[in-house]
Structures are given as structure tokens and as C-alpha cells.
Amino acid sequence: MPGDAELLAMLRKAPVLAGPLPDFDPQSAPAAPGPLLAAWFADALAGGVPEPQVMTLSTAGADGEPSARVLILRGLDTADCAADFASDVRARKGRDLTANPRAALTWYWPAQGRQIRLSGPVTVRDEQATRQDFLGRSEAARIGAFTGTVSEPLSGPAEWERAHEAARELLAADPGRVPDTHTVYRLRAQEAEFFQGDPRRFHVRVRYARNDPGWTRSLLWP
């Protein structure tokens, strides 16, 4: 097992922005972020980026303590530059958003050297959106949502097995059941940033700030 200094030296030697990376001319960036958001997702899919829908959600509770976790994009409204994600309202992210309904989303695609950051207020989607999201999930995911109490302490695998079996039987008897605590959230970006890495470190950063009904676009120093 390497020591801290040796591990850090090894990490420093690991390739970063090795390329080849796509070009991004900031002068070609559209006036609003939505079309660029759609284009970058399409590029990621066409380029074979693994799991481009996976993103980091950052929240903070009433005490200001930050928290971040990785989850999956559940919906996208590029026209309004808004993105959906889901959580159990009892989970830490759910509790944070109840106390402080603002968040940030970050996508990072190393193969393309690209990052997208959205930040802004978060609202709760309606019951229909929540139900559609949950019932569209895999059977394993739906059983998992009824297994135990999210974010609470777990004594070990045996406790999980018992709860999982009970959840499986529950859904077998009622396949259309949706947890009362399952919630779909929508982040409507007030700020959006598109970052294109460059091996020379002349990274291109285009920032959009919402100024209803339009947007203000600016270029940032790397």
C-alpha cells in the first residue's frame, strides 16, 4: 500500500485532458444555453461517452453544510434549461431541499474534457410526473425503493435481505404502488456554464446567467 506522498506522486502522473478533445468556439455559442445543452448531450451520446446521464447533485441544508452525491438525470427541458432528478424526500438530499430549495448539477465527461454546470432553484414536480418516473424504473429499482428507510443506519446484510424480501412481496401484490416519499425535483437553471478543456490549459468557459425572459452570455477566464 503506497504512502500518501507516493500515492499523490502517482496521481500527479496520471494523464489529464489527454485528448484528442473536441473544439468549442465560444463565438459560435447560442444566445441561450438550451440548444448548447442539447447539442453537448447529443455529442456525448454520439461519441460513446459512458453514462452521460450520470451527474453530481450538490445541496446544502438549513445549516449551510454542503453535500454532494452522484445520481441519474430523470428529465430534461432544454428550452427552459431545466433538469429533473428524483429522491426519497427522507434522504439527505430530500431533507436539504426541503430546508433550502436550491441546488447545483454537474456533468463531467473526461473523454471529451467537458463539464456542464447548472445551478438554481428547485421545485417539486406534480404527482403524475412522480408516478411516471417511478413506474418507468426497473423492477430492481422499484423494489429497492421500498426496501428499508433510505439514509438510516443499517445493521448488516441480514436486515437488508429481510426488508428486500418484504418489499418484493409488497410489489408482487401491488405492482403499481408508488412510495409516498418518492419525489421528482426540477432544477431551473439561473446559471449555466459550459467548460471545454484544452491540453494547453486554455480552457473555454462560457457562462449564461438568466435574465428573464432572456439570458446574458459571457466568456470566463480559465
Automatic annotation (TrEMBL):
This is Pyridoxal 5'-phosphate synthase. Its EC number is 1.4.3.5. Its cofactor is FMN. Signal peptide: none annotated. It comes from the Bacteria. Residues 43-149 form the Pyridoxamine 5'-phosphate oxidase N-terminal domain. Keywords: Flavoprotein, FMN, Oxidoreductase. GO terms for molecular function: pyridoxamine phosphate oxidase activity. Belongs to the pyridoxamine 5'-phosphate oxidase family. Residues 183-222 form the Pyridoxine 5'-phosphate oxidase dimerisation C-terminal domain. The keyword Flavoprotein applies. Transmembrane segments: none annotated. It is an enzyme of class 1 (oxidoreductase). It comes from Actinacidiphila acididurans.
